[in-house]
């Protein structure tokens, strides 16, 4: 019989566990902004502090999860956020103070609205008790931006912060992407309230349609199978919906030619034999006439912009229209649709592939004559350029070499003007999110800050800003931001010493009266400013190229330099023009391949 007695614990009994508090954490409004951004996965923001946004910046200073890039001008913050978003499919965040800080964001907000870029703009506002009194640095930024945002939210109570930030993020990223503004009063930032996450989103009426109606998809597939001259007219919506792989599958299954708009460059590989190029005012002849002579246009995430259609009443006169867009307001706005399809481009293309397989069981399409016509146009009117006869560099050749030496994995952000069109034409885009530009608004100064934002989002890619000497002077202060924050972008200034696109129009349509378009930055001028010295002053590497045999070496040096930004001042001919061209206000059939050289249009 065992004499061992059971062990007895001599330790005092543990007190019962206190129930975990279910009470939400109390945070200041500023703390709630920061916590909300982190909960949404935001890792990078661009901004510039001021009096009305100081409380948030005070919170931000103590945080290590979100990288803040201090810009030199609020417009730079907005465009950087755009470049960040457009290159990575993530939300770009720009922060500014009240008054002029907020109004300096307006151009970038409008730009994002036109080009469907998911942008979250956060602005400080004066104390709620001072609103409406014309207080120092007070502007009604909600009222100012109402026409150029998807939504605007004014926050006066710290308890409303989580729902405001979460709602803004949701609206910016769903449906047709776009900018949303959250304006937060200074007292809402300073005061405290319980932080409730996830917040309840109260968005009555906001229900974007992503799945299209099956009957419309079937009708589109049947029209495609029956057509003789169809074209896929691809817009930036295909990139925003990340539908490039599906588009490639659709094109290859159907054998239909594809055109990609300025906003859609890279949505379909330039090297693909079915790609006709970019349509529009400065599009390729096969792309322009491909649309013009078609009998069926399937528009995917495109909006029949005037730069594509020219004189609307004369655009594609014999074509039926299938218009696919996630924004119902775009369908029928410019060209009536025979088959309107509201839905996300990716979802619609997937459904269209399946419907096509069924449609061709009943009808065998034959596009052979169509391809004969298009192939003839490609042979007769290839995209090209002539070397200038003034001994200066060819801007087209410079840009072409940048693209060839960098390759399709690079990112190319352009300003606005001739250099923008040459970059769209002569760089070969093989993947989406590699081409960033201001398409709808045409914002000069977009290039440098957008490239900066793209490099923050995609640090392992080579990022070029292809800029004009006019555009560069609008936002080049962001070189300081790049140097201080180790953002080694490459900047190619296509320096023709003028506002080049305006000068081209003056040459062609105003009898050569070059009224106030000379900038005195290039060949034979005072060169004010000297862009190489300017780059050096900012701590960047400055290079000037004046001879053709120096072009490749300069580009290679830029590619090899990754410890600071690089600025190359390419001195190009001011007389170089963008061709092909369709003059504004006329039908696209009047496309000119070069000056005084127009192709024949097949009229039926």
Mean pLDDT across all amino acids: 95
Oligomeric state as shown: single chain
Ends distance: 114 Å
Give the strand order, joined by hyphens, for the main sheet. Answer: 3-2-4-5-7-6
By DSSP (H or I, 4+ residues per run), the number of helices equals 23
| CA-based gyration radius | 27 Å
Q: Considering DSSP H and I runs of 4 or more, what fraction of the residues is helical?
A: 25-40%
GO molecular function: acetolactate synthase activity
Domain Thiamine pyrophosphate enzyme TPP-binding: 415-570
Keywords: Amino-acid biosynthesis, Branched-chain amino acid biosynthesis, Magnesium, Metal-binding, Thiamine pyrophosphate, Transferase
EC number: 2.2.1.6
Describe the structure in your own words:
GO terms for molecular function: acetolactate synthase activity. It comes from Conyzicola nivalis. The protein is an alpha/beta fold and 604 residues long. The chain contains 23 helices and 20 strands. The protein has a six-stranded parallel beta sheet, sandwiched between helices. The longest helix has 15 residues, at 74-88. The protein is globular. The termini are far apart.
């Amino acid at each position: 019989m065992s004499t061992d007695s059971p062990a007895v614990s001599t330790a005092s009994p543990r007190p019962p566990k206190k129930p975990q508090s279910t009470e939400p954490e109390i945070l200041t409004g500023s703390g709630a902004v920061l916590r909300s951004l982190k909960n949404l996965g935001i890792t990078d923001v661009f901004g510039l502090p001021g009096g009305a946004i100081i409380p948030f910046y005070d919170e931000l200073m103590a945080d290590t999860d979100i990288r803040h890039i201090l810009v030199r001008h609020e417009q730079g913050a907005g465009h950087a956020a755009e470049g960040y978003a457009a290159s990575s499919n993530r939300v770009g965040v720009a922060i500014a103070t009240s008054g002029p800080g907020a109004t300096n964001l307006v151009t970038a907000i409008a730009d994002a609205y036109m080009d469907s870029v998911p942008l979250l703009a956060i602005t400080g506002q004066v104390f709620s008790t001072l609103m409406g009194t014309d207080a120092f640095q007070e502007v009604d930024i909600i009222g100012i931006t109402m026409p150029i945002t998807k939504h605007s939210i004014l926050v006066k109570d710290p308890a409303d912060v989580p729902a405001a930030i979460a709602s803004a993020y949701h609206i910016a990223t769903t449906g047709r992407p776009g900018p949303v503004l959250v304006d937060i009063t200074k007292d809402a930032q300073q005061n405290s309230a319980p932080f409730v996450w996830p917040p309840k989103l109260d968005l009555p009426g906001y229900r974007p349609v992503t799945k299209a109606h099956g009957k419309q998809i079937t009708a589109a597939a049947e029209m495609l199978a029956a057509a003789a001259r169809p074209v896929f007219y691809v817009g930036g919506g295909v990139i925003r919906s990340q539908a490039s792989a599906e588009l490639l599958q659709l094109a290859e299954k159907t054998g239909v030619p594809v055109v990609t708009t300025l906003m859609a460059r890279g949505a379909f590989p330039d090297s693909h034999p079915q790609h006709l190029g970019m349509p529009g005012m400065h599009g390729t002849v096969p792309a322009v006439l491909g649309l013009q002579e078609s009998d069926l246009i399937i528009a995917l995430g495109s909006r029949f912009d005037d730069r594509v259609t020219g004189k609307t009443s004369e655009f594609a006169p014999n074509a039926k229209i299938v218009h696919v867009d996630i924004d119902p307001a775009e369908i029928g706005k410019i060209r009536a649709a025979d088959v309107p399809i509201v839905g996300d481009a990716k979802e619609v293309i997937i459904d269209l592939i399946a419907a096509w397989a069924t449609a061709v069981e009943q009808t065998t399409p034959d596009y052979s004559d169509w391809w004969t016509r298009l192939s003839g146009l490609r042979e007769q009117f290839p995209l090209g350029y002539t070397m200038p006869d003034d001994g200066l560099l060819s801007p087209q050749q410079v840009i072409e070499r940048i693209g060839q030496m960098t390759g399709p994995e690079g990112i190319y952000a352009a300003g606005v003007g001739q250099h923008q069109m040459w970059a769209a034409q002569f760089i070969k885009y093989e993947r989406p999110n590699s081409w960033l530009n201001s398409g709808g608004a045409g914002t000069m100064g977009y290039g440098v800050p957008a490239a900066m934002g793209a490099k923050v989002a995609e640090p392992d890619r080579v990022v070029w800003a292809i800029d004009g000497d006019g555009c560069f002077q609008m936002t080049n202060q962001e070189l300081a931001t790049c140097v201080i924050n180790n953002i080694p972008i490459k900047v190619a200034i296509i320096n023709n010493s003028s506002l080049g696109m305006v000068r081209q129009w003056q040459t062609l349509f105003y009898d050569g009266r070059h009224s106030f378009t000379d900038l005195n930055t290039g060949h034979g001028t005072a060169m004010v400013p000297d862009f190489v010295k300017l780059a050096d002053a900012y701590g960047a590497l400055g290079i000037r190229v004046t001879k053709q045999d120096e072009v490749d070496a300069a580009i290679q040096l830029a590619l090899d330099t990754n410890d600071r930004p690089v600025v190359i001042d390419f001195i190009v001919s001011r007389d170089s023009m963008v061709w092909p061209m369709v003059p504004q206000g006329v039908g696209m059939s009047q496309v000119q391949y070069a000056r005084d050289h127009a192709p024949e249009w097949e009229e039926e």
